[in-house]
Amino acid sequence: xxxxxFIQRALELAASNVKEGKGGxxxxxxxxxxxxxxxxxxxxxxxxxxxxxxxxxxIRNACKQLGSFQLKGCQIYASCEPCPMCIGxxxxxxxxxxxxxxxxxxxxxxxxxxxxxxxxxxHEPEVRTIPMTKLLSGNKEAILPFNIWKQSPNKIKY
Amino acid sequence: xxxxxFIQRALELAASNVKEGKGGxxxxxxxxxxxxxxxxxxxxxxxxxxxxxxxxxxIRNACKQLGSFQLKGCQIYASCEPCPMCIGxxxxxxxxxxxxxxxxxxxxxxxxxxxxxxxxxxHEPEVRTIPMTKLLSGNKEAILPFNIWKQSPNKIKY
Lengths: 158, 158
Fold this sequence. Notes:
2 copies of one chain form a homodimer. By secondary structure, chain A is α+β, with helices and mostly antiparallel strands. The first copy, chain A, is 45% helix and 18% strand. The first copy, chain A, is built from 7 helices and 5 strands, in the order H-E-E-H-H-E-H-E-H-H-E-H. Chain A has helices spanning 2-19, 44-47, 54-66, 84-93, 104-109, 115-122, 140-151, and strands spanning 27-32, 35-41, 74-80, 97-102, 132-134. Chain A has a 4-stranded mixed β-sheet with strand order 2-1-3-4, sandwiched between helices. In chain A, helix 4 (84-93) links the parallel strand 3 and strand 4 (97-102). The radius of gyration of chain A is 18 Å and the shape is globular. At the A-B interface, helix 1, helix 3, strand 3, helix 4 and strand 4 of A face helix 1, helix 3, strand 3, helix 4 and strand 4 of B. Strand 4 (97-102) of chain A pairs parallel with strand 5 of chain B.
């Protein structure tokens, strides 16, 4: 069954990533028309990039492959349930669906606990553990870029 | 006042980004010890990368600059309230604080509405509008990468 084959590839990438010392135990593949078009692993520590989760790398590689910033008609297979950052990335990339093997609870058991990020997202910016503070908000200056965007004739919506 | 200067730089980057046709009206800077060490703008459409939001680019540039996957001692100034993907990235990068000018409501008014992502994150994976489906979950195979990680002597935690 193809779905199992694709998730097994994501798991294989996750395992080899640890053995090769590239980063955390996470892998992902992007599938289109029944074929893997891109792969990714977690390379946070080997590239000094905290955003380099497996899903983000796989999405970026797939978009490069397709010459598009959208993944319509694609499925993402991830070795583990995507974290909130990666879920956000998935919504911006808009694939048709996502499959994952390990759950966030399995991840927490291996010291990758992202439940606090889910909680933080529910709070107002100012009271998060990393405080997010308004500055110039409500001021005309703050929305000037949006006004320039609205009036821009050549904008590419995304 | 330095804080205002930094947020104004983020807003200036956002405005020039639109004028230069690089992407959406968003800019961000990372500050350490009172100095801007990295900048970023939204380059989603010009680089075919749906993850290339201003904050993500600024975080990646700052980490490259510091040779670290963590932003301890840094502040991020963003022209607009970060979206859930970027908030996730911020939690993984761990800066000391974030400042933003336009709010998510200003962004929605300019057709950048990320409120649906906040809502989606509250739902169980299976019932999201992009369905996220378990496959092999609960199976030993699904947690094999985590077991390899736990036993790995050379792992770099992050």
